[in-house]
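Lab notebook, bench 4. The sequencing result for the construct came back, and we need a structural model before the next group meeting so we can plan mutations. Quick request posted to the team channel:

Model the 3D structure of this chain.
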Amino acid sequence: MDVLIHLFVGLHIIGIASLLGGFLTQAMGEGTARFTPAMLHGAFTMLVTGVVLVGLNQADDQSVNNIKIGVKLALLIVILGLVYVKRDEEKVDKGLFGLVGLLTTANIFIAVLWT
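Done. Here's the predicted structure in token form:
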């Protein structure tokens, strides 16, 4: 079971990297910001692997902090909704684009610091 959990943690990190990487590459550039397909797929990967990880941890009789998972899920649903709705627009408002980056970063720090 540990190998399976670690596999999904790795996939979860790849999803985070895709979402945050898509944000950072555009935030550092001087062009117009838009939500890329990699960002959408990264957010969706985070959702699927996160749900699987909760299930695997519960099946392995490990404790799961449901409040923490609920907060992370709520943030991710907002991120996924914004990226999905605005995915076809050539230019996204910088405030909205920054919000996705901020929520993604907050989600990472919640995962790491909330014990």
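The longest helix spans residues 2-27.
Will bring this to the meeting.
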